[in-house]
Every structure is written in structure tokens, then in C-alpha cells.
Amino acid sequence: MPRKRYSKYKKPPTETKLASNEVLEDTLATFTKIQQRHTKTNIETSDSIPKSKKIVILPAIAIVISILFVSMFFFNPPVSNSSPQTSTGEQIGDTIQIEMSDITNTAKFFSYNDNGISIRYFAVRGTDNLVRVAIDACDVCYTEKKGYTQVSNNMRCKNCGLDFAIDNLGTDNQQGGCWPSYLPVTTETEVISIEISDLSLKRFMFA
Q1: In b/e form, how buried is each residue of 133-170, taking b as 16+ CB within 10 angstroms?
Q2: Residue 135: phi, psi to the nearest 5?
Q3: 136 with 180, same domain?
Q4: Cα-Cα-Cα-Cα dihedral of 132, 83, 104, 202, to 10°?
Q5: How far apart are the C-alpha atoms of 180 and 121, rounded to whole Å?
Q6: Is the same domain home to 155 and 196?
Q7: Which residues in the chain land under pLDDT 50?
Q8: Of the N and C termini of the chain, which has fewer Cβ atoms inside 10 Å?
Q9: 3-class DSSP state for residue 199?
């Protein structure tokens, strides 16, 4: 029987058909070569950056990180939970009197001993130079016994971190809430008078 001939443009099917495992091996080898070329390109690109630029970039990154850290510290300084040093004021009869000249725009803390319980309060001048007085506790967070600390023109609750404008003490804090608790005072020319009975009403906040 004569042997079947194939044209030069066609090959026998047995010569063009590969086994399935051979196809997989060929595909895997091709993929590996492509991956190696891609990795080599990335390495060459990294190596192409001059060392002088790398030396400049690293300190620049360190400077940016330092600036961000300092900014966070400056605009949101850490709050100390320690109790402030306090004065007692001068007791005259049923009142506590504080010299106006002793009060500045830096909060000054005072305490009154009510049968073994120290009731804390503070006095500070606002931006209008008027003296504000309030209890160093609030109707919301008083159970934590942390009080307030001054941050610029605000008093910050050491428990919840909220800020309250010093200029609004004596008015906005009369309704309670997280404000420094309201303490009625009598302001005279040279002294501030505080009724001891008003301080005693706040005793529960420190007991």
C-alpha cells in the first residue's frame, strides 16, 4: 500500500500533538522565565537610584516623622492624672476668701477639708482677665476622682479628655454635665468669697 504523503505546509498529526504533561511543563517553563525577567527588572530599577539620592531621602523621611510626632505632642499634650498641689485659702467665718492678686491666667487649685474629705476647686483668669472659679470635678466623671488640667485657655477633663473654655465658666457650667461643676462665688475688689456651705454640697464628689 503506498505511503500517504503530506505537503510541506502540513505535518502529520502525530508530530504536532504533544502529551498533556509536556504541555504543562512547557507552559510552566515559559512562566518561570517571564517571572525571572520581571524580578531582574525590578532589581535593576532599584539599583539604578543613585546612592546620593538614597542618602537624602532617608533623612527626609526621618524629619517628616519627627515633625508629625512633635505636632501630635504639641496640639494634644499628654494629661497627667496626678492630683495638683493645692492651697487652702483663708477661712473667715463661714467663707473662704482668696486674694484676687493671687489669681493669674494659670489655674490655681485649692482644697477645703470637710471632715476628712478634701474638696478641690480652682480659680483662673479668662482671656477677659475676669476670675473664674469652679469645682475640680464634674457631675458626669466625678466618680473617677481625676479632675481637670489646664490646656491653654481651656480646662480639660482628665477622664474623658473634653476641653471646656475658661471664659464660659460661671455661666455654661451651671446646667451640669461634664463641665467643671459650678461653684457660686462673690467677687469683690480685692478678694473672692466662697461660702463653705456651697463647698460642702460638693463633698459627695470627693468622698
Answers
A1: bbbbbbbbbbeebbbbbbeeeebbbbbeebebebbebb
A2: -75, 140
A3: yes
A4: 20
A5: 9
A6: yes
A7: 4-20, 23, 45, 54, 64, 68-75, 77-79
A8: N
A9: helix
Is-contact 200 101, C-beta < 8 A?
A: no
Asked if residue 128 and residue 108 are part of one domain, the reply reads: yes
Please name the residues in contact with 198: beta carbons below 8 A apart, sequence gap of 6 or more: 183, 184
186-187 and 191-195 beta bridge pairing: antiparallel
Predicted confidence at residue 49, as pLDDT, reads 53
Closest by alpha carbon to 202, among 110, 143, 149, 137? Answer: 137
Place of cell 455661666: 171
| 49 and 100, same domain (yes or no) | no
pTM, full prediction = 0.62
Q: How many CA atoms lie within 13 A of 177 on its CB side?
A: 10
The count of domains in the chain is 2
Query: In this structure, are residues 120 and 86 in contact, taking their beta carbons and an 8 Å threshold?
Result: yes
Alpha carbon dihedral 185, 186, 191, 196, in 10-degree steps, equals: -50
Query: What pLDDT shows up at residue 56?
Result: 54
Looking at the structure, tell me whether residues 67 and 93 fall in a common domain: no
With respect to residue 9, please indicate whether it lies within any of the assigned structural domains. Answer: no
138, 177 Cβ separation under 8 angstroms: yes
Residue 192 burial by Cβ neighbours in a 10 Å radius (0-12, 13-18, 19+): buried
Amino acid 161: pLDDT: 95
Same-domain check for residues 172 and 125: yes
